[in-house]
Amino acid sequence: MFRYLFSRFECENTPRNFQKEIKIMENHGDHSHLQQRKKRRLVLFPLPLQGHINPMLQLASILYHKAGFSITIIHTNFNSPNSSNYPHFSFRSIPDGLSETEASTADIIAFDMLLNVKCAVPFQDCLAELLGGGGGDDDVACLITDAVWYFTQAVADSLKLPRIVLRTSNVCSFNAFAAIPLLYEKGCLPMQDFQFETPVLEIPPLRYKDIPIIETHDPENLNRFLKDMVKQTKVSSGIIWNSFQELDELAMTNLKQEFPIPNFPIGPFHKYFPASSSSLLAQDQTSISWLHKQPPKSVIYVSFGSITGVNETEFQEIAWGLANSKLPFLWVVRPGLVCGTEWLEPLPKNFLEMLDGRGQIVKWAPQQEVLAHSSVGVFWTHNGWNSTLESICEGVPMICQPCFGDQLVNARYVCDVWRFGLRLEKKVERGEIERAIRRVILEAEGQKMRERIMILKDKMDTCLKTGGSSYQSLESLINYIMSF
Ligand code: UDP
Which keywords does UniProt give here (predicted)? Predict the structure, then answer.
């Protein structure tokens, strides 16, 4: 069974060409906001995990380039972003007080809760100093924090500063998270094995096995964590979503009944500019030169994101499944993906040599560029929301292997609602992998998936253009912030 883990990343990447990024942003739309808004500052506080840092820094870039706000990023010492990639932002580091053991725990809920405790005082001090003029002459319009930083609402209230929440998942999975405490109260959770396939009436179309439970040493912790996150989101000044109206329409209607605060689906964030520069690991560019040599729509791109891990047996099943498919593959094997190993030690002997160039393994890929490459035919993913959205944006169908949390919800939507993916069940087995790959790349079923995902991709392209849903939502967000 897949597991999840995370650890301290070293910043290895080098500064990118920012002039190019700014130029593209400037060509993207109207910039009447730029002049009048130069003097308002936004303070943003990302959660220090790759899947949360990326969207927060993308959002910062959008609000800087599209609206002319000045930007201050407050960040923890743990997994601090590479500030040299953002010369136009100012960065404030706060001590998180995490020990090595605490920073490398596999218990993500305990980790998030601990951060909410340990960062409270340093964050309050840092923000108070910024408000007292320590951040330059601009006046601070509002605070934008990840939804997981629930303690920041009390800080914002005490400093009389509006707080807007960035939720880095989509609306469907947020609704599912919000329903978990209620399901516990009703006695429907914890779930029994026989319930797995039963539909959850409160959050259609999910089944019990899709409920985004995250394992933690004390099950009561998850309940407490979710209650705090939901409660402090509800009393915030609004929610920004890295999603778009056309994708999350029904879920958004349901959400508004429970959360009658302003909602701004302005995504997909990464499409406002060429590629992400907030990667904590160096992205191996040989991925792209290798892709150039492969036939169109033939490559299986495999990545399970920055946290999910596999055991040795699963790793070997994946390797054999890929090899037996007889199709080219690009596989991201993060150091530490297989617990207790450095990198590729568990790979079958002479594996890559045997494939004669048909397989390429990298430690970390420029994922958005990979997915945009014409040679990629399918994305075998853990369905983290960023990966799922990036795949939709490039019209690449998915093989879904969710592990925990919102990945379970995303996979259900990809496979059963949007219908451009196949789900692998939890046991990783080479025969099943090979069949899934061949179904998506070679068979008519895969072609149908490709057609369906292209329809959504077109909608996504439209939503960012003048008058489109995300374009309008961003305008509303900017005006809203200016009203503070
Ligand atoms: N990513 C990347 N290179 C890789 C694998 C992932 O740049 O080799 C990026 C990916 O583009 C995405 C993020 O890392 O933006 C992963 O976020 P996601 O929400 O998909 O998963 P998480 O890491 O939070 O589980």
Answer: Glycosyltransferase, Transferase
